[in-house]
Amino acid sequence: KGLNDLARRAGLLYFGTAVDNPSLNNSKYLSIAYDTSEFGQATPANGQKWMYIEPQRNVFNYTMGDAIIKPAKNNGQMRRCHTFLWHSQLPDWLTSKNYTKTELISILENHIKNEATYYKNDCYAWDVVNEAFNEDGTYRNTLWLWTIGPEYLEYAFKFARKYTSRQTKLYYNDYNVERVNNKSIAIAKMVRDFQRKGVPIDGVGFQAHFKTGSTPSYEEQVASMKQFTKLGLEVAITELDVRTLLPDSAEKQAQQAKDYANTVKACKDTDDCVGVTVWDFWDPVSWVPDVFPGEGVACLWSANYTKKPAYYAVADVLGED
Ligand code: G3I
């Protein structure tokens, strides 16, 4: 049995992976990505981001998103859609000009309206807002914050609810929130604030970009997720990977295996943690080496397509009663 089979038997909705457009011409890669016993869910790593979807103002291009979403849908895999609003990977027309608050709110609505309508029946969940907080729990200083103010978050979720289908789960997604810390506490405060004001939100995504040997403990991860499930939200592990300082070794692989398994077990054991998505499954296409020189091998499958100890540790933890 593959990871998705095991995850479903353990009560999760899916075990999934990010897929990026350059991988789509690699048939060996695709034979794993489209194997529904391994992966029951796909997330476009880049294809639905603003710079690709709306490269010119009010000109929409769904080619890159479709290339990931359509085959997953045809294949019976769930889709987590990513992302309406982020501070990164924005088109030049948006970042190189100063818009007024009113203009920027209408640009945001128009973007969400078009993308949400186009993908209306295609997404189990949308990452409506990605990475809006700093480590200390203050709002990240972005063009959204300084032009619109903190209420840009409310606008994004309201627009998302207005234009997605009713069943689509609306998520806030972030990293370094897998412990109870200033950042996750600030997000929980935002959720309570939304609930008081009637702003729609259904879930919180824990990216879980980790480093071998220094991940949050099982207990810390469960405790952080519970901050949100006790408010009635679902949670998910949305971008799991565990990067290693190179060169790799058998010891490091064994540690990485424990780290992966801890996170998957934390989700499995938390009511209302719906699934785990890895931020790609094959080492050579991981984002890690580009951003962290000297680190890598963060995925479940190695360059020669063998399953690493981390794969078997995840399978074991999903298979345990
Ligand atoms: O599109 C250009 C292409 O034209 C050019 O030839 C090529 C040369 O390097 O670059 C391409 O753009 C790259 C883009 O991915 C598409 O492949 C960017 O340089 C590269 O920086 C970008 O990286 C992505 C990163 O987000 C951007 O911040 C990663 O693939 C993607 O995995 C990563 O995903 C993020 C999540 O969205 C949010 N959470 C963190 C996660 C990891 O950073």
TrEMBL record:
Catalysed reactions, semicolon-separated: Endohydrolysis of (1->4)-beta-D-xylosidic linkages in xylans
Compartment(s) of residence: Secreted
Pfam family name, one: Glyco_hydro_10
One biological process term in Gene Ontology: xylan catabolic process
List of catalytic residues: 239
Gene3D superfamilies documented for this protein: Glycosidases (3.20.20.80)
GH10 domain span: 1-317
A GO term from the CC aspect: extracellular region
Pathway: Glycan degradation; xylan degradation
The protein's enzyme class: hydrolase
Organism domain of life: Eukaryota
SMART domains reported in the protein's UniProt record: Glyco_10
Protein family: Belongs to the glycosyl hydrolase 10 (cellulase F) family.
Name of the protein in its database record: Beta-xylanase
